[in-house]
Amino acid sequence: MSSFFKSEKVIVCAGSGGVGKTTIAACLGIGFARRGKRVLVLTIDPARRLASALGLDMNDLGSLVEVKVPGQSYKGELFASMIQPQAVFDEFVRQRASSAQAAEKLMRNSLYRQLVSSLSGSQEFTSLERLLSAVQSERYDIVILDTPPTQHAVDFLRAPERIYSLFQESVTKWFAAKSTESGGTVKTLLGKVVERGTHTALRALEKITGSAFVGELGEFFAAMADLQDQVSARSIEVHRLLTSEATSFVLVTGFDHSKLVEAKDFFVELKRGGYRLSGVIVNRSQPAWLELEPLQANLADRAHNLSVPHIERRFLQLYQELQGYYSLRKDTYLKFETGLKGEVAYCLMPELKEVVYGLEGLESMSSILETKMAWE
Amino acid sequence: MQQKIVLVTGKGGVGKSSVAAGLALKEARKGRRVLLAELGERSYFSELLPSGPMEISYQAKAIESGLELVKWDGESCLKEYLFHYIPIRRVVDLFFENPVMKALVQAAPALKELAILGKATSGKRNVGPAFDYDVVVVDSYATGHFQALVRAPQGMAEAIGFGPMGEQSRSIERWICDPEFCQIVIVALPEELPVVEALELSESVQADLGQKVEFVLNKVWPKTWRAEDIQALGRLQSLEWPQGLSDFREVLAQSLGQQCQYLDQLSTRGRVHSLPWLLEPSSWGLLKSLSQQLEDL
Ligand SMILES: Nc1ncnc2c1ncn2[C@@H]1O[C@H](COP(=O)(O)OP(=O)(O)OP(=O)(O)O)[C@@H](O)[C@H]1O
Ligand SMILES: Nc1ncnc2c1ncn2[C@@H]1O[C@H](COP(=O)(O)OP(=O)(O)O)[C@@H](O)[C@H]1O
Ligand SMILES: [Mg+2]
Ligand SMILES: [Mg+2]
After folding, report:
1. Average pLDDT over residues B97-101
2. Cα A309 to Cα A304, A343, B238, distances in angstroms
């Protein structure tokens, strides 16, 4: 097995919802801090327990605060921060709009408010924005990014494009031109600005949504046009960062057929997009306490011997069923692993017996993970 | 006539798809005409089907007697919706090929979500192509995106005001707020995070739709195991037991305790159904077994 990390400055933890990305991101942070690095972990929606373990009390911290995780004693230093999309978006607008008035105008627009709070790409956009700022601040040796819960791991890669495409020149210009001619009807404007296809499309949109909505949309894009250059410049920078030698993805996935298929697809998509993959962590695999070796003959007999107390029989049977269940999953996994050989590092992180509590809990999970990853 | 729609949600990986399929199979067994709808880009069920893998997309396909399966993506729903108002194929195609509109549809909040809910309720509202199901079960998005989904009609109604789409938004909103017609099922696992997320989601659903939800606590240890049993086991524990067995005893004891606690927590906010962890590999057979366990939902 090749090793996970070389000399990355950015690590992106990707994977579909609920597989353990946020927890793994924190564990990797501890791993690097132990190795003397100054690390920042950017988390999204951490569980309350995890947030308090990292010293991120939800109520009184804005999204831009980076706290030194309390109670640590590492060779390096561990910092954590929580990404709140709305706050990051607002900050972005405030810093990059041409004037304070322009920023205010955009932030008041009702579509803007919906856009920043809805999920079609804005969480992804803001987490990348936050990542870029953190890297550019040059205050850390390494930044670890947790990613928003998506249905599939690849969604994270695709989502930002949706936001960027909104700012594309053709879109913003077109709508912006439209709104400056307020008062003029759509028809006169269209004659001037756009080609026939767009004309028809806009009429269709107006027919179903009404002119008020199209007007609102126009204002939204006019306000966005102000940010367009900044956004496209940032998007180029983000893309450069994500595809650079300094960045690498860690795919966190689950121990079941559909999650493993998804992992494979993600792997292909990453390669196609020119991104680097450090490795795959199959989390919550066979529980650490479960042994797959069949029970000794005498115990196995007891499971079905009617003279043994009922309760003990049921218990032994249940254990054997669990063994069967996890053996099958392991077979599925082994097929997947064979497909990965030589391509990328991978490891199985077991389901832990105890719930992860506090920084100590994270530290012990991190130690196990380090062993499984064969992290030097 | 469409009788009801069930929206199934919960944290990622908790068993939304399994519960949705279980519910759909249960309804079909009772002789209802059922549609199981998946959202998103990939079909989870296509590889599990009893008749072998099948491509699942916007055209519903029969998979068992009384049960059809479909995958709805926002764009196709929106296309159909547009076609309903502007029944000229060429115009609709132009709309979706246009880069400006493409960008808009991709990123504009709520447009696609609205179209999906519009499709899901189209039988009741008598719009669009024939939609001849008694029950529609939607294997819906995970928590955050689900909130965006159910907020879409109201948000759109506010943003658009009048016009045909504004009216549609209001009518969709009315139906998904109607507890007789729309049932919301939140799936959780007996673990802290999924339960907390389920509780919070039930509050936001109540606030947004005025609806009570039902919970499914999935993958619970069989109810026949009680705390007394574990104590009795402790007394039986023998020196011959390998470490795995002793550890399992501890794990089982601990999770039985937590399980009860989670059941209590959830039941403060809605009816809770527990669904046992069936130690079978994922397959159509598993979904059938689950459907047997969902009789009372
Ligand atoms: N009660 C159960 N007993 C046994 N296995 C189950 C049960 N419920 C779900 N599973 C299994 O757990 C895994 C996850 O379930 P499922 O895919 O339904 O979750 P999901 O919430 O739809 O996930 P996603 O968020 O990825 O869509 C699957 O392998 C499924 O077969
Ligand atoms: N290997 C593991 N063993 C036991 N519990 C785990 C493990 N990995 C994660 N968890 C738990 O699973 C839950 C979900 O993890 P989280 O990191 O929040 O997932 P995600 O960010 O992918 O949604 C948390 O309660 C976490 O403590
Ligand atoms: Mg997370
Ligand atoms: Mg699913």
Report:
1. 82
2. 10, 51, 13
Taking a C-beta distance cutoff of 8 angstroms, is the pair A259, A13 a contact? no
Tell which residue, B148, B152, B108, has the closest CA to residue A224.
B108
Which ligand is nearest to the Cα of residue B218, counting in written order? 1
Name the residue in chain B with its Cα closest to that of A290. B244
CA angle, residues B274, A21, A274, in degrees to nearest 5? 135
Which domains, ranges and CATH numbers included, belong to chain A? 10-97+119-164+234-290+331-373 (3.40.50.300), 297-328 (no CATH)
Residue A38 DSSP SS3: strand
Reported confidence tier of residue A187, pLDDT bands at 50, 70, 90: very low
Q: Tell how far the Cα of A153 is from the centroid of ligand 2, in angstroms.
A: 16
| pLDDT category of residue A190 using cuts at 50, 70 and 90 | very low
Q: What is the distance between the alpha carbons of residues A257 and A279, in angstroms, rounded to a whole number?
A: 18
Contact criterion met (CB below 8 Å) for B123 and B2: yes
Q: Which residue(s) pair with A43 in the sheet? A: A82
d(CA A208, CA B78): 11
The ligand 1 atom nearest the CA atom of B21: 18
Q: Tens digit of pLDDT for each residue in A269-286?
A: 898 989 999 999 999 999
A149 CB near ligand 2 (under 6 Å): yes
Least confident of A16-30, B129-143, B157-171, B188-202: B157-171
Angle, alpha carbons B278-B231-A364 (nearest 5°): 70
- Stated pTM of the model: 0.92
Which tokens sit at B188?
Answer: 């959780």
Residue B248: C-alpha distances to residues A236, A291, B54, B261, B263 (Å): 52, 10, 40, 20, 22
Q: Checking DSSP bridges between strand A345-350 and strand A277-285, what pairing results, if any?
A: parallel
Which of A23, A58, A151, A232 would best serve as a mutation to test chain B binding (most B beta carbons within 10 A)? Answer: A151
Minimal CA separation from A118 to chain B, in Å:
6
pLDDT at A8 over 80: yes
Sequence-ordered list of residues with C-beta below 8 angstroms from that of A152, at least 6 positions apart, any chain: A16, A262, A265, A266, B40, B41, B42
Least CA distance to A254: which residue of chain B? Answer: B13
Domains, in order of start, for chain B: 4-223+271-293 (3.40.50.300)
In 3-state terms, what secondary structure has residue A10? Answer: strand
DSSP string, chain B: ---EEEEEEESTTSSHHHHHHHHHHHHHHTT--EEEEEESSS-SGGGT-TTS-----SS-EEEETTEEEEEE-HHHHHHHHHHHHS--HHHHHHHHH-HHHHHHHHHSTTHHHHHHHHHHTHHHHT-SS----SEEEEE---HHHHHHHHHHHHHHHHHH-SHHHHHHHHHHHHHHT-TTTEEEEEEE-SSHHHHHHHHHHHHHHHHHH---EEEEEEEEPPTT--HHHHHHHHHH--TT--HHHHHHHHHHHHHHHHHHHHHHHHHTTEEEEEEE---S-SSHHHHHHHHHHTTT-
Nearest to B162 among A210, A217, A321 (CB): A210
User: Which amino acid is located at B235 in the chain?
Assistant: R
The DSSP-derived string for A142-183 is EEEEE---BSSTTHHHHHHHHHHHHT-HHHHHHHHHHHHTTT
Rounded distance from Cα B209 to ligand 2 centre (Å):
30
Main-chain dihedrals φ then ψ at residue A139, nearest 5 degrees: -95, -5
Q: Are strands A345-350 and B4-10 parallel, antiparallel or unpaired?
A: unpaired
Test A298 with B97 for CB contact under 8 angstroms: no
